[in-house]
Amino acid sequence: MITIGIDPHKSSHTAVAVDAAGHQRAQRRFVVNAGTVRQLMRWCEKWPARRFAVEGAKGLGRSLAQQLAAAGEHVVDVPTLSARARLLATGGDRKTDAADALHVAQVALFRHDLRKVKVEDQSTILRLLTERHDDLVNERTPIISRLHAVLRGPAARRRAGEGRSPCSRKSRR
């Protein structure tokens, strides 16, 4: 069985495949776009006996983990690893996405108490979308208020006689 550890980010996902002994067999970086999961599945076709370990499957890796689970793949959630744990594991301070993905795979390989990712139902997805919509509305309101103040500012000052040079006021008298 091959375990594929994934270190997800907003713009890319790094995947590392390890064998049953925890030795790295392959690695690849995927740019996040509409075809990311399809590319990942094509890359790992050579390992029919596989499982995925996604770091932060409840956070940044949620979308990828859900898509893999919906495709019928076995996916486990590896809680976000602390920088200190990585430092102790590597014996150095170099942090790379590939090293993180390797650690995710190795943690999944040797820990059997990790949460299996289950496909979320439609009500959960709608709740998440509603929360995101509310967040965007809450961000939009102060931005609109600031824009309104900026656009209204010069016109309001002109009506009140502010913003003119003292010479222009004298010449009008």
Strand order of the largest sheet: 3-2-1-4-5-6
Derived structural class: alpha/beta
Query: What is the CATH topology of the largest domain?
Result: Nucleotidyltransferase, domain 5
Counted up, domains total 2
Mean pLDDT: 83
User: Strand-residue fraction?
Assistant: 15-25%
Q: Can you tell me the CATH superfamily of the largest domain?
A: YqgF/RNase H-like domain
Give the low-pLDDT segments.
none
Largest sheet: 6 strands, mixed
Q: How many strands in all?
A: 6
Computed over alpha carbons, the radius of gyration is 26 Å
Q: What share of the residues lie within helices?
A: 40-55%
Figure out the total of helices: 6
Distance between the termini: 91 Å
The CATH architecture assignment of the largest domain turns out to be: 2-Layer Sandwich
| Shape, principal axes of CA atoms | elongated
SSE order, one letter for each helix or strand: EEEHEHEHHEHH
Name the CATH class of the largest domain.
Answer: Alpha Beta
**Assembly of the depicted chains:** single chain
List the helices and strands and how they pair.
Layout: E1 2-8, E2 12-18, E3 24-31, H1 36-43, E4 50-55, H2 62-70, E5 75-78, H3 83-90, H4 97-110, E6 115-116, H5 122-159, H6 166-172
Parallel strand pairs: 1-4, 4-5
Antiparallel strand pairs: 1-2, 2-3, 5-6
